[in-house]
Amino acid sequence: MARTPTSALTIGILFAAMTSNPAAWAQTQPQAAACPGTAEAEQNRQVVFAFQEQFFNQHDLRAAHRYVAENYVQHNPTVPDGRKALVDTFGPVFEKNPQAHSQIIRSAVDCDLVYVHVHSTLNPADRGRAVVNIYRVINGRITEHWDVIQPVPEQSANGNTMF
Protein backbone atom coordinates (compact mmCIF):
# COMPACT_ATOMS: atom_id res chain seq x y z
CA MET A 1 0.00 0.00 0.00
CA ALA A 2 1.37 3.40 -0.93
CA ARG A 3 1.74 5.82 1.91
CA THR A 4 -0.17 9.01 1.48
CA PRO A 5 -0.17 12.03 3.77
CA THR A 6 -3.67 11.02 4.91
CA SER A 7 -2.69 7.44 5.80
CA ALA A 8 0.45 8.65 7.59
CA LEU A 9 -1.64 11.16 9.55
CA THR A 10 -4.18 8.46 10.45
CA ILE A 11 -1.43 6.12 11.64
CA GLY A 12 0.13 8.95 13.65
CA ILE A 13 -3.18 9.83 15.33
CA LEU A 14 -3.86 6.17 16.13
CA PHE A 15 -0.36 5.74 17.58
CA ALA A 16 -0.74 8.90 19.68
CA ALA A 17 -4.10 7.70 21.00
CA MET A 18 -2.66 4.32 21.96
CA THR A 19 0.43 5.71 23.66
CA SER A 20 -1.00 8.81 25.36
CA ASN A 21 -2.74 6.73 28.03
CA PRO A 22 -1.26 3.21 27.96
CA ALA A 23 -3.15 2.10 31.07
CA ALA A 24 -6.52 2.94 29.50
CA TRP A 25 -5.49 1.31 26.22
CA ALA A 26 -4.35 -1.86 28.00
CA GLN A 27 -7.60 -2.01 29.93
CA THR A 28 -9.56 -2.35 26.68
CA GLN A 29 -7.41 -5.20 25.40
CA PRO A 30 -8.34 -8.87 25.88
CA GLN A 31 -7.22 -10.28 29.18
CA ALA A 32 -4.70 -13.12 29.20
CA ALA A 33 -6.70 -15.11 31.75
CA ALA A 34 -7.30 -18.76 30.99
CA CYS A 35 -10.78 -19.65 29.81
CA PRO A 36 -12.97 -21.16 32.52
CA GLY A 37 -14.32 -24.65 32.10
CA THR A 38 -17.86 -25.24 30.90
CA ALA A 39 -19.28 -25.30 34.43
CA GLU A 40 -17.63 -22.00 35.40
CA ALA A 41 -18.69 -20.37 32.11
CA GLU A 42 -22.27 -21.45 32.82
CA GLN A 43 -21.98 -20.02 36.35
CA ASN A 44 -20.87 -16.72 34.78
CA ARG A 45 -23.97 -16.76 32.56
CA GLN A 46 -26.16 -17.37 35.63
CA VAL A 47 -24.53 -14.40 37.43
CA VAL A 48 -25.44 -12.16 34.48
CA PHE A 49 -28.97 -13.59 34.23
CA ALA A 50 -29.54 -13.03 37.97
CA PHE A 51 -28.16 -9.50 37.77
CA GLN A 52 -30.26 -8.64 34.70
CA GLU A 53 -33.44 -9.98 36.32
CA GLN A 54 -32.97 -8.47 39.77
CA PHE A 55 -31.50 -5.12 38.73
CA PHE A 56 -33.26 -4.30 35.44
CA ASN A 57 -36.62 -6.06 35.98
CA GLN A 58 -37.20 -6.06 39.73
CA HIS A 59 -35.36 -2.72 40.04
CA ASP A 60 -33.53 -4.07 43.07
CA LEU A 61 -30.57 -1.70 43.26
CA ARG A 62 -28.96 -3.93 45.92
CA ALA A 63 -28.38 -6.49 43.14
CA ALA A 64 -25.47 -4.30 42.07
CA HIS A 65 -23.83 -4.98 45.46
CA ARG A 66 -24.43 -8.72 45.07
CA TYR A 67 -23.17 -9.10 41.50
CA VAL A 68 -21.05 -6.09 40.47
CA ALA A 69 -17.48 -5.41 41.56
CA GLU A 70 -16.96 -2.09 43.33
CA ASN A 71 -14.36 -0.99 40.77
CA TYR A 72 -16.57 -2.05 37.81
CA VAL A 73 -15.30 -0.71 34.47
CA GLN A 74 -18.01 0.79 32.28
CA HIS A 75 -17.44 1.29 28.53
CA ASN A 76 -20.77 3.00 27.84
CA PRO A 77 -19.70 6.65 27.46
CA THR A 78 -22.84 7.94 29.23
CA VAL A 79 -22.26 6.05 32.50
CA PRO A 80 -19.24 6.58 34.80
CA ASP A 81 -17.09 3.72 36.10
CA GLY A 82 -17.89 2.04 39.41
CA ARG A 83 -20.75 0.18 41.05
CA LYS A 84 -22.00 3.32 42.83
CA ALA A 85 -22.23 5.19 39.53
CA LEU A 86 -24.26 2.33 38.05
CA VAL A 87 -26.76 2.53 40.91
CA ASP A 88 -26.81 6.35 40.81
CA THR A 89 -27.50 6.28 37.06
CA PHE A 90 -30.27 3.69 37.03
CA GLY A 91 -32.05 4.49 40.32
CA PRO A 92 -33.74 7.60 38.85
CA VAL A 93 -34.52 5.75 35.58
CA PHE A 94 -36.38 3.04 37.52
CA GLU A 95 -38.21 5.64 39.66
CA LYS A 96 -39.38 7.48 36.54
CA ASN A 97 -40.16 4.22 34.66
CA PRO A 98 -41.49 1.65 37.16
CA GLN A 99 -42.56 -0.67 34.32
CA ALA A 100 -39.10 -0.73 32.69
CA HIS A 101 -38.25 -4.28 31.67
CA SER A 102 -35.45 -6.13 29.88
CA GLN A 103 -36.08 -9.52 28.29
CA ILE A 104 -33.05 -11.63 27.48
CA ILE A 105 -33.61 -13.07 24.00
CA ARG A 106 -30.35 -15.01 23.63
CA SER A 107 -26.98 -15.35 25.29
CA ALA A 108 -23.51 -16.71 24.68
CA VAL A 109 -20.40 -17.24 26.77
CA ASP A 110 -16.79 -16.87 25.65
CA CYS A 111 -14.23 -17.47 28.40
CA ASP A 112 -14.98 -14.80 31.04
CA LEU A 113 -17.31 -12.81 28.75
CA VAL A 114 -21.08 -13.22 28.78
CA TYR A 115 -23.10 -11.76 25.90
CA VAL A 116 -26.83 -11.10 26.22
CA HIS A 117 -29.11 -9.86 23.44
CA VAL A 118 -31.89 -7.98 25.19
CA HIS A 119 -35.19 -6.30 24.34
CA SER A 120 -35.38 -3.37 26.73
CA THR A 121 -38.56 -1.31 27.19
CA LEU A 122 -39.52 1.54 29.51
CA ASN A 123 -43.21 0.58 29.58
CA PRO A 124 -45.60 -1.76 27.73
CA ALA A 125 -46.32 0.86 25.01
CA ASP A 126 -42.60 1.43 24.28
CA ARG A 127 -41.20 -0.35 21.18
CA GLY A 128 -37.95 -0.29 23.09
CA ARG A 129 -34.37 -0.93 22.21
CA ALA A 130 -32.36 -3.88 21.02
CA VAL A 131 -29.35 -4.11 23.30
CA VAL A 132 -26.30 -6.33 23.28
CA ASN A 133 -24.63 -6.28 26.68
CA ILE A 134 -21.20 -7.80 27.09
CA TYR A 135 -20.16 -8.50 30.66
CA ARG A 136 -16.79 -9.68 31.96
CA VAL A 137 -17.33 -11.92 34.99
CA ILE A 138 -14.40 -12.77 37.26
CA ASN A 139 -14.77 -14.75 40.48
CA GLY A 140 -18.56 -14.48 40.36
CA ARG A 141 -18.57 -10.67 39.97
CA ILE A 142 -19.31 -8.48 36.96
CA THR A 143 -16.12 -6.48 36.54
CA GLU A 144 -16.57 -4.86 33.14
CA HIS A 145 -19.38 -3.94 30.74
CA TRP A 146 -19.81 -2.92 27.10
CA ASP A 147 -23.08 -2.36 25.26
CA VAL A 148 -24.50 -1.59 21.85
CA ILE A 149 -27.99 -0.05 21.82
CA GLN A 150 -30.32 0.37 18.84
CA PRO A 151 -33.90 1.71 18.93
CA VAL A 152 -36.60 -0.63 17.62
CA PRO A 153 -38.06 1.25 14.63
CA GLU A 154 -41.75 1.57 13.85
CA GLN A 155 -41.12 0.08 10.40
CA SER A 156 -38.31 -2.08 9.07
CA ALA A 157 -36.81 -2.08 5.59
CA ASN A 158 -37.08 -5.89 5.69
CA GLY A 159 -39.46 -8.43 7.15
CA ASN A 160 -37.06 -9.53 9.86
CA THR A 161 -37.53 -8.90 13.54
CA MET A 162 -34.67 -7.46 15.57
CA PHE A 163 -35.11 -10.36 17.95
What does this structure look like?
The protein is α+β, with helices and mostly antiparallel strands and 163 residues long. The protein has a single domain (35-151), classed as Nuclear Transport Factor 2, Chain: A (Roll). The chain is built from five helices and five strands. The chain has helices at 5-20, 22-27, 38-57, 63-67, 83-96, and strands at residues 68-74, 101-110, 113-121, 129-138, 141-151. It has a five-stranded mixed β-sheet with strand order 1-5-4-3-2. A hairpin with a 2-residue loop joins β2 and β3 (113-121). It is globular, with a radius of gyration of 19 Å. It starts with a helix and ends in a 12-residue tail after the last strand. Residues 3-19 have low confidence and may be disordered.
Element layout with pairings:
Elements: H1 5-20, H2 22-27, H3 38-57, H4 63-67, E1 68-74, H5 83-96, E2 101-110, E3 113-121, E4 129-138, E5 141-151
Parallel strand pairs: 1-5
Antiparallel strand pairs: 2-3, 3-4, 4-5
Helical content (DSSP H or I, runs of 4+): 25-40%
Identify the overall geometry: globular
The overall average pLDDT, rounded, is: 87
Low-confidence stretches: 3-19
- Terminal-residue CA separation: 41 Å
Provide the CATH topology. Nuclear Transport Factor 2, Chain: A
Give the total of beta strands. Answer: 5
With strands numbered from the N-terminus, the spatial order across the biggest sheet is 1-5-4-3-2
- Which strand-content bin applies to the residues? 25-35%
The CATH class, by name, is Alpha Beta
Number of helices: 5
Number of separate domains: 1
Topology as H/E string? HHHHEHEEEE
Class computed from helices, strands and strand pairing: alpha+beta
Largest sheet descriptor: 5 strands, mixed
Rg calc: 19 Å
Indicate the CATH architecture: Roll
